[in-house]
Amino acid sequence: SMKPKKQQIEFSTSVNYLVPDKLQLCYDTNLRNVFIRLLNDGHKEIWPLHSEHAQTLIFDVLSELYGRTVSPLHLNQVIRLLEIMGRKGERIKTSLRVGERIDGSLEYDLNDGGWQCVRVDGSGWMVDKSEVNFRRYDHQQPQIEPLRGGNIEALFEFANVTGHSERTLFLAWVLSCFCSGIDYPILLLTGPRGSG
Questions:
Q1: Alpha-carbon Rg of the chain, whole angstroms?
Q2: Is the torsion defined by CA of 155, 145, 148, 98 positive or negative?
């Protein structure tokens, strides 16, 4: 029988070191995409396997394991193996920015380092740790943590919408952006030439 090459043994060692102790592999059947899930400072993080963030994390863990910088070839081979394994991993539904908890409350991902969200239910809202499987991409920026005591009418300082019915429609559109699992209406703004 043929002996496995040293490189193949290293790739296998790398994958066995990563899964399941360092990260779990998940598969979103709707997106047909593999994600990594890991615990970091007491919160859950989910990243697309092919994102820069996930690949940097895997690179750092493997470099620590081997006591040297792993080559791009090694990293790419490990990611290919993780992709194959991930397609058979736990099936999950991921959400982008807005998602629904099992209890029916909504979450809005603040995209911060602590993976916090704004949870909204019948009693109001609060900043909380996320339970929804939010996927994040490298281009997303952190959102501002909301403050209590605001007034939704303040939006009209920034949006020149006149008339009661137009304002009601505009606010309905804004609120629809925070709903999960719906067909989103399109906002069509019109105005005179040169208005914006």
A1: 22
A2: positive
pLDDT 10s digits, 40-99: 888 889 999 999 999 999 999 889 888 899 899 989 999 999 999 999 989 999 999 999
What string of DSSP letters covers the chain?
Answer: -PPPPHHHHHHHHHHHHHTTTT-EEEEETTTTEEEEEEEETTEEEEEETTSHHHHHHHHHHHHHHHTSPPPHHHHHHHHHHHHHHHTTSEEE--BSSEEE-TTS-EEEE---TT-EEEEEETTEEEEEE--S-B---TT--PPPPP-TT--GGGGGGTS---SHHHHHHHHHHHHHTT-SSSPPPPP----STT--
Q: How many CB atoms lie within 10 A of CB 27?
A: 20
Q: Are 22 and 59 in contact (CB under 8 A)?
A: no
Q: Which of 109, 107, 164 is nearest to 137 (CA)?
A: 109
Q: Is the dihedral of CA 24, 25, 29, 33 positive or negative?
A: positive
pTM for the full model?
0.77
Q: Which two tokens stand for residue 124?
A: 């109001």
What residue type is assigned to position 44 of the chain?
Answer: K
How confident is the model over 8-47, as pLDDT tens digits? 556 777 888 788 888 999 999 889 999 999 888 888 899 9
